[in-house]
Amino acid sequence: DVQLVESGGGPVRTGGSLRLSCTASGEWYDSYCLAWFRQVPGKTREGVAVIEPDDVRTYAGSVKGRFAISRDNAKRALYLHMNDLKTEDTAVYYCAALGYGYWGQGTQVTVS
Questions:
Q1: Hey, which residues does 68 pair with through a beta bridge?
Q2: Rounded Cα gap, residues 6 and 80, in angstroms
Q3: pLDDT digits 0-9 by tens, 46-64
Q4: Is the pLDDT of residue 67 over 90?
Q5: How many helices (H) and strands (E) does the chain have?
Q6: CA 38 vs CA 35, 104, 105: distances in Å
Q7: Residue 94 pLDDT class (50, 70, 90 cuts)
Q8: Does the first or last residue of the chain, that is N or C, have fewer Cβ atoms within 10 Å of its Cβ?
Q9: Which of 5, 72, 68, 67 lies closest to 32, judged by CA?
Q10: How far apart are CA 59 and CA 32, in angstroms?
Q11: Contacts of 45 (CB under 8 A, 6+ apart)
């Protein structure tokens, strides 16, 4: 099993930046396809960004050009660099290893 733990969330001003981190314990494979999702109460969880094992990255249209996903396999870590934050980015952010059912517990990001 893999345990994922997110960190780096918090309150931030509109236009500001945050870096979310997701660290893993347990089994880790460089072949994991990793992703960030976010969820607002009362809404379905939405995908934000995906990074494939070969570093191909895909973004939701709403964050493209503002967010950047990266990974450090040596550190068993996944990151989400968020710039030019907007109020609509407010959500709980989750990291996940796609296809394996591994999810973190989430970290709150509040933009105001």
A1: 81
A2: 10
A3: 999 999 999 999 999 999 9
A4: yes
A5: 0, 11
A6: 10, 11, 11
A7: very high
A8: N
A9: 72
A10: 17
A11: 37, 38, 39, 94
**What letters, b where the CB count within 10 A reaches 16 and e where it falls short, cover 31-47?**
ebebbbbbeeeeeeeee
Name the one residue in this structure whose structure tokens are 């407010």: 90
Question: Residue 87 in 3-state DSSP?
Answer: helix
User: Which residue shows structure tokens 């959500």?
Assistant: 91
Tokens of 16: 């500001």
Tracing tokens 């945050």 back to the chain, one arrives at 18
Tokens of 12: 């931030």
Q: What is the pLDDT of residues 1-43, one digit of tens each?
A: 889 999 999 999 999 999 999 999 988 788 899 999 999 999 9
DSSP-based three-state secondary structure for 89: helix
